[in-house]
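Note to self: keep these together.
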Amino acid sequence: MTSSAPAVRSPQLAVRARAVAGRAAAILVLAVGAVWLAVNLFHAPTQFFQSAVYGLRNGVLYALIALGYTLVYGIIELINFAHGDLFMLGTLFSAFTLTGLGLTVSSPKGWLGFVLVLVLAMIFCASINVTIEFLAYRRLRRAPKLAPLITAVGMSFILQFVGLRWNGSTPRLWPSVLPAGHFQIGGVNIDYNILVVITVTAGLLALMTWIVTSTRTGKAMRATAQDQDAARLMGINVNRIISFTFAMGGALAGAAGILYQQTVGTTRYNAGFQLGLIAFTAAVLGGIGNLAGAVLGGVLIGVIQGLNDGLPYAFGQEWSQSVVFAILIMLMVFKPTGLLGQNIGEKV
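Structure:
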């Protein structure tokens, strides 16, 4: 009887040792990151904050795209890889519509046109996303998970081909109707278009959060995400709720498309692949299926990229993607559910 006690304690001690080693490694990584930030802040404070501002702008755009991923995954557990290319179509629609309306300069007329095209881009992308859900994903809800995943990849290639035919194979430059110029705070230049991006994004996120948390439709969305069969028994039209979720995600992609096109000034047929991958990474980093996590992950990745690209002591822009994914891998090792994710049981 006494000989079994060490055998029982040994696995417990091994688990505790691994937990302690994991915490120690996480603390070491955080300490190294803090030292890196402190050195750069002390050496070049103006450059530090300038890089953070530009990173924040990109992070807000990543957050908008990431919300589309996390909304769809949260309700039907599908990684919609076509979402990034939907964002790309939003950039093309915005550029061609604004130019077609003759809105090519920053003026009160151009600003009103921006608001109009923002709404149209959201409707355009929402319609495409709902159509994709109806034609490609609806019949595959109870299929093995590999089937809808491959279908999403196929839809991504289809949308990318549409973008290639629409935009051409080379990047195109477009004028912006957003207010030009900047102002300074402590020597840091803050462009007016960054304020527009943050304001529009904050408004859309507040509206979406209100819909999800404070409306009957939002309650139905949460019930459908929890258990579709039980939601049907309670009288919820599951198909309509899922379509509405796809419409919300598509609308956010359209908003991100026009904001990106107006701030960056270019369109590319393959822009959705890179930015969509980064946004998906942001959703995973924050906790896939968690709305606040998608926003947090997008902002963090944007700021990290901005600091890495702009600080004097950093890896530089050519290593930007490697830095982002290295951070994601380390986080997944220590916290597989993401920053704000939670461990939940498998749905059966």
